[in-house]
Specification:
By secondary structure, the chain is mainly α. Among the domains are: 29 residues, no CATH class; 42 residues, no CATH class; 56 residues, no CATH class. The chain contains six helices and five strands, in the order αβββααααββα. A hairpin with a 5-residue loop joins strand 4 and strand 5. Helix 5 packs antiparallel against helix 6. The longest helix has 28 residues. The mean pLDDT is 83.
Length: 188
């Protein structure tokens, strides 16, 4: 005769009762948790913090907001937005960042311009637009330097230096005009 040394828990006894009664699918323990109705519902574009992370909903999908989100925007897509071809060639990332399309699309565009005889005009316009952009950047730099405070300067050591004098605005204006004139002469 063997003696049963195992103790049965309440869960085991309830399971046997359920089996005897023919209720094999019934639960033997009570669970604890949240009902879906009690969970906060979020909509498209909402931003919230949960579990130490920041979340949002984009296109119906819950996404984690990270410090790399800006980097994600600078990476190239898998497919060219123009021709929908795979962007797997070595120069595709460079062409996408410059022109927003793959190497093949850019080559087709430039070949079309050459066949139509518009290539030289395109180069000229592109070159002139770059000079115009350079002029605008130089004007912005000039204005920012002209509007800087000359009352003091903090060195790397943390000391405040007081400067006497100021910017000779007439001389700066003449220099600006000379630079703009020189850049305008570079246009084709």
């Amino acid at each position: 005769m063997s003696i049963l040394k195992k103790q049965f828990g309440e869960r085991d006894i309830q399971r046997i009762r359920n089996l005897v009664k023919g209720k094999s699918g019934d639960r033997t323990v009570s669970g604890v948790g949240k009902l879906k109705s009690t969970i906060d519902s979020h909509e498209e574009g909402d931003i919230w913090e949960e579990g130490g992370r920041t979340w949002t909903i984009k296109d119906g999908i819950k996404e984690n907001i990270t410090k790399l989100d800006k980097f994600k925007k600078t990476t190239i897509p898998l497919f060219c937005p123009k021709c929908k071809g795979i962007m797997d060639k070595q120069l595709d990332p460079h062409y996408y960042k410059s022109y927003g399309e793959c190497v093949n699309c850019r080559a087709e565009f430039e070949t079309k311009l050459k066949l139509e005889g518009k290539w030289e005009d395109y180069l000229k316009d592109t070159y002139n637009k770059e000079i115009d952009l350079l002029i605008e950047e130089y004007k912005n730099f000039y204005n920012s330097k002209l509007n800087e405070s000359t009352q003091g300067y903090v060195t790397e050591a943390g000391e405040v230096e007081k400067w006497v004098g100021g910017v000779n605005k007439q001389r700066a204006e003449e220099s600006l005009e000379d630079v703009i004139k020189y850049l305008e002469e570079l246009k084709k």
